[in-house]
Amino acid sequence: MSSLNIAVVGGTPDSRKAIASALGKKSQSEDVSFYHTVFSGKKVNIMEPTAYPDKPPSLAIALSGADFIVLLAEPSPQLGETLVLLSALGKRHGVVVGDNDISAFMAAASLQYDVFSTLDDAKTKVLSFEPERKTDGPLKAWLDHAFDVRGVGSVALGFVVDGVMHVHDKLAAQPGEQALEVRSIQQNDVDVEHAEAGDRFGIKYKGPAPDQFGRGTVLGDVKVYAEIEANVVVPKYWKTMPGKTLHAVAGFQSVPCQVDKDLVPGQTVDCLLKFHKPVALRNDAVVLFDLNAKGLRIAGVAQNGG
To answer: Are 121 and 26 in a shared domain?
Structure first.
């Protein structure tokens, strides 16, 4: 059974919640809410950045693993920021839902999505999308929750990004150089023998206590960095003054950081990106925010090739 991961963005938190609820059943909700359903035998996971626009990293987290975008056509001060990030992350597959004409904004962001008046009109297009997957390489999985279940033991929830996870696998957990053994895997409350790229999973595991696994823990073959040499693509609308502490989001990881050079609007800047605490990466986009900026808060996107 294949998987499809959808991000619902744009509009207000209430509008996004309504669309996400129409697509699936809510499972968890914090700064990012998760929903799920099954369509024609396909496992569908929906992410909605509940805390956006107050907490901009939630937008990057919701988009990080998304295969397909549902963009609400509601003009707002944050519409441009959302489009800048969609373009920078290369989110080329999606739909616009709503009667407002945002075609000029889409063109400025070099995005071409099909337009539908209502979600009902768009639903088949959304749920029928078939993403490409990488299952033959080393495992990389992101955790977003870990907790104890009485009578069950330690449980963690997350997504497989690349590769395949099997029952009885012994996996590195980074950053932190810890390890765990996968005792069982569930998808949609059904026991399975493996989870592959694109799948959302719940695992029962043997290893460190759940309070040692914050959201952002990465399982599998990754490297841990205190700093990276990066090519930062800076939006042409970036106006903040240089020298500030920024905030980096990579997958489900979110940490303060600094760069050693000025970020020039509209240019690609080669710089040293220093994290305030270690980050686990492998071929990840790193989104840089200035959380206190007026207007656009996205300072750039860096690509890690490690």
So the answer is: yes
